[in-house]
Amino acid sequence: MMKRSCRSLKNLRKPKPGSETLYYITNPWLIFGDLEIEKAFSFFGQYAYAGAIEKIEEIQKNMSNPIIHLQLEYAEMLACAYKEWDAFNFNHAAKNMSDLVKILDRDSSNTGYLLMDFREPLKQQAEILEKLKKIQSSIKNRNYEAILSEKEAYTALMFTMYQCACIREQQEKYDMSTLLFYRLLEMIIQKRLYCYHLLASDMNYENMDIHPEQIPEWKDLGRQDCISRLKDNFSDIKKRVFQMDGACLPEKSGLLDGLIILTMIMRFQFLMCLTRSRNM
């Protein structure tokens, strides 16, 4: 039901009491549907993609306009892609985004339609998701070497981690945000260790890419002696700085151990560069 006034009090700028007439509206969505669409789109700003999907499906059931239906289909596909991306389900996210890009290309003649101005950014996002899709099985199987070897995919994964952490912070889910930021730091350390042929999940120091013979103080040391020297430095740093026991080099590296090992390697690299500069 909708109330409409037939007469108004011009001097007071309001309807005259008692002059209202009631009208029966067969489909309220014809009048208030645009407000519901705005509500659906507001979920995107809150990163509540499941809520956006639910609201869009409700609108589609109650509105019969084919043009609106088509544009809501675009929005629903985008929400599905972002929902899966946010949950690190890259296979499903890539499929949804790829399907959306194909449909937008198909309907590109409708220049005024929803998302048509964002076709290029969405294509770029589809390409990123395709890269992430390549390492989905490796993530599931915890094959860290395969993940680290895919440079572009690993970079995309780190930015995904960062974006998700920022979103959780905005949603005031601080525990999850902190966990994601911590995991991001671990990923950065793991990538740096991998540059020296060290895999955080299996630290084989025999494969470490350093050259002690290039430093005069270490030139007579064999690789085992070099590893022993690093072990002593590692133990010393843990005891002096962190008051923790570190009698041996770790077989698996977490954030703290990885940071200490990187500090030692970077110091080693600095000594090597200093030696080169002296010899020039």
Enumerate the spans where pLDDT stays under 50 for 5 or more consecutive residues: none
Element pattern in H and E: EEEEHHHHHHHHHHH
What is the approximate shape? elongated
Coarse structural class: mainly alpha
Q: So what's the oligomer here?
A: single chain
Strand content: under 5%
Description of the molecule:
With about 280 residues, the protein is mainly α. The protein has helices spanning about 30-45, 50-60, 65-85, 90-105, 120-135, 135-140, 145-150, 150-170, 175-195, 225-240, 255-280, and strands at about 1-5, 10, 15, 20-25. The strands form two sheets. A two-stranded antiparallel ribbon has the order 1-4. A two-stranded antiparallel sheet has the order 2-3. Strand 2 and strand 3 form a beta hairpin. It starts with a strand and ends with a helix. About 20% of the residues are buried.
Summarize this, please?
It is built from eleven helices and four strands; from the N terminus they run ββββααααααααααα. It is mainly alpha-helical and 280 residues long. The strands form two sheets. A two-stranded antiparallel ribbon has the order 1-4. Strands 2-3 form a two-stranded antiparallel sheet.
Question: How are the SSEs placed, and which strands pair?
Answer:
Layout: E1 2-5, E2 8-9, E3 14-15, E4 20-23, H1 29-45, H2 49-62, H3 66-86, H4 90-106, H5 119-134, H6 136-140, H7 144-149, H8 151-170, H9 174-195, H10 223-242, H11 255-279
Helix pairs in contact: 1-2, 2-3, 3-4, 4-5, 5-8, 8-9, 9-11
